[in-house]
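Translate sequence into structure tokens.
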Amino acid sequence: MNTGIISSRYARALLRYAEETGGAERVAIQARQLLEHPEVKSVRLEPEIERFVTLLVRNGRIEDVRLMLRTYIAMYYESKGFKLAHLVTAVPAPGLEARMQAVLEQKFGCGVLLDSSVNPELIGGFTVEIGDYMLDASVKNQIDVIRREFIIQNNRIV
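Result follows.
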């Protein structure tokens, strides 16, 4: 079975359970912390997450826990009217973050929570990913496009 389908089913079940117990926000916060800092070992898990992990171990699905937590976070924020977006820039650009958040909120018609990171391999520009939508405005991508076009043109000549 597809890992994406499995993770969304488990994440949806966790969201329903966490909403029933009133701990959906706590679970989302701790899930984000666990994904951002997996090296921390001495964290006291929220009861909902602890029970969820026990279920995953029992069903032999613990290897997909990171994907399930990411899916849970996206589902939680979407249920609250927000979309998660990830912005990657070649250099730190706080001005771009604010403008990009405004543009995405206007485009998608909902609140946007923007995470950002820096990747110097982009050479310049940025990439932004929100749900299934991805915009790649990086210099690295532009160079790759030119390289592919050059190869295609040269293959026709020979």
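Note: Residues 149 and 155 are 10 Å apart (CA to CA).
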